[in-house]
Amino acid sequence: MLSAIVGSHAYGLATAASDEDRRGVFVAPTESFWRLVKPPSSVDGPADEQVSWEVEHFCALGLRGNPTALELLVSDLVEVCTPIGAELRALLPAFLSQRVAVSYERATTQQFTRATRAAEPRWKQVMHALRLLMVCRTLMTTGELRIDMRSAREELLAVRAGSVPLAECLRWSDELRTEIAAAESPLPVEPDTQRVEDWLVSVRRRSLNADHGS
């Protein structure tokens, strides 16, 4: 139902060495959930660096404010989008809430930890942690999810190249976290779970009717 290129190409941070990361959403047949062996929640491939989520699993990720899931709904590099996929992209506001601050905080803390535990900093991870914090700051202060980082491309690629001292990167991170925590966000406290669930049920019903030709 939906597939798009995400990652550095969608962020405007791609270099000649950047892979093309793809994420997607598929709908498993409704009747397959009535069997003892359930459909997979995600599938790798067929292309390299491609992962697709079953729609229910995607909805759960989106409601938790998962950064990777949410960016699929705003990537401009869409390769497949059925009418149901278009409905899902239009559902983005229902997924957004102040929960994103917690999700992005967790994700960036993990990235910084992995990036700085090595003998040499993993600069690519440091860059992406800062990028995520910048996205979260915009989201918390404006209510809009913007993943295009071309306006900060020079600064972020300098981090990736290892040209910015780690101490300065950590100060930058602390400043962003402070701004996020202080934001008077226009986002609701909680996502619109009912709206997302109602849509999911409608997808299941339509899939079942399609399977039976009605």
Task: Show the helix and strand layout.
Elements: E1 2-6, H1 7-11, E2 21-26, E3 42-44, E4 50-54, H2 55-63, H3 67-72, E5 78-81, H4 83-90, H5 92-95, H6 99-117, H7 123-142, H8 153-160, H9 166-182, H10 193-211
Parallel strand pairs: 2-4
Antiparallel strand pairs: 1-2, 1-5, 3-4
Structural write-up:
The protein has a 5-stranded mixed β-sheet. The chain contains 10 helices and 5 strands, in the order E-H-E-E-E-H-H-E-H-H-H-H-H-H-H. Helices cover 54% and strands 11% of the residues. The protein has 2 domains: 2-96 and 191-211, no CATH class; 99-182, no CATH class. Helix 6 runs antiparallel to helix 7 (123-142). It has 214 residues and is of the alpha+beta class.
Major sheet characteristics: 5 strands, mixed
Radius of gyration: 19 Å
Number of strands: 5
Biggest sheet strand line-up: 3-4-2-1-5
Q: Helicity, in percent?
A: 40-55%
Q: Please mark out the parts with pLDDT under 50 across 5 or more consecutive residues, or reply none.
A: none
- Return the structural class: alpha+beta
- What's the tally of helices? 10
